[in-house]
Amino acid sequence: MFLSRLPNPVLAATAVFGMTASVGLTGVVAAPGTASAAASGYTLHTEPGAGVTWVYNLIKSAKSSIDLTMYELQDTTAEKDLGSAASAGVDVRVILDHREESGNSAAFSYLKSHGVHVAWSSSKYYYTHEKSMVVDDSTAAIMTLNLQSQYYSTSRDFGVVDTNPSDVAAIVKVFNADYANKSITPGDGADLVWSPTGSQTQLLALINGATKSLRVYSEEMDDTTITNALAAAARRGVSVQIVGENENGEYDSAYDTLVSAGARISYYSSSTGFYIHGKVVEADYGTASAKIFIGSENFSNTSLTENRELGLIISDPAVLSSVAGTFATDFANGTPFH
């Protein structure tokens, strides 16, 4: 969540684009923002360099339907595109988080008045923190970013466009249930990671299964189980590197545990203007068993066990390589935690 950010676009641009570096990683070091496409059906968009035109274009491409679940929506361009799609006969449905009603109310009113079917999220979840969109029941976007234009230029975020039919079908099925406020146990499709049902178990399996390296982006490091699993990985000889957000020392205790176990941490704070909002775990990059998690789940108990969240775990080489390169730059440009 963005609660007390002080964006500085000039400093952010320097942090994101001013330097390149490779820190203990192999393979191609991609420039931040490079979109990485692969024949397997996954396309990665790295923010802020990629921009969000790809989101707008996905909305505009819709012929029959759009299903959008968004924790925070404050982007007038996206809102107008959704309204235009509805006016053109596309069945547009949107779920917005009910606990963020004050921030989402303007978008809710605009969408409702422009033919979009919009609903507040179910109170059965503490937050509906998911950021996803499905277009024409065939293409899904699974994102770490909220659609908040005020933060686009200063946030490290990721979005994966996924055309795997089983993933898309599972997301649509959950959307239908959540929109109707009905209970459902989500299906994982080919590679999905859902909260509150299975994300903690899947993330622990990814971390505990690593044998060579773990590269982690964390906006929040507030789940003891995840922290302890990362520490245990470091103690057994896995190279653990973390790029995190740590405003006012909020996660110093967890960071102390991790560094004492041998992990290396490079952190940012909102006062720098460059904000780590992505949530990523890349395991064993450069090996045949490499996998990566990208999603809305923060490493907090609320996120993993009480919220509606969505991510995915894939082994796409192009996605892995692109994130590895971006991570190297961000790790080099952050402040080491000692």
What this model shows, in words?
There is one protein chain. The protein has 338 residues and is of the alpha/beta class. The protein folds into 2 domains: 9-32 and 196-336, Endonuclease, Chain A (2-Layer Sandwich); 40-188, Endonuclease Chain A (Endonuclease, Chain A, 2-Layer Sandwich). The chain has helices at residues 9-17, 53-60, 76-87, 101-113, 165-179, 199-208, 224-235, 252-261, 301-305, 317-333, and strands at residues 36-37, 42-47, 65-70, 73-74, 91-96, 117-120, 131-135, 139-143, 147-148, 155-162, 192-195, 213-218, 221-222, 239-245, 264-268, 275-276, 280-283, 291-295, 299-300, 309-314, 335-336. Strands 1, 2, 3, 5, 6, 7, 8, 10 and 16 form a 9-stranded mixed sheet that branches. The protein has an 8-stranded mixed sheet with strand order 11-20-18-17-12-14-15-21, sandwiched between helices. A two-stranded parallel sheet has the order 4-9.
Question: Could you write a compact summary of the structure shown?
Answer:
This protein is α/β, with parallel strands linked by helices.
What keywords describe this structure?
single chain, 338 residues, Endonuclease, Chain A, 21 strands
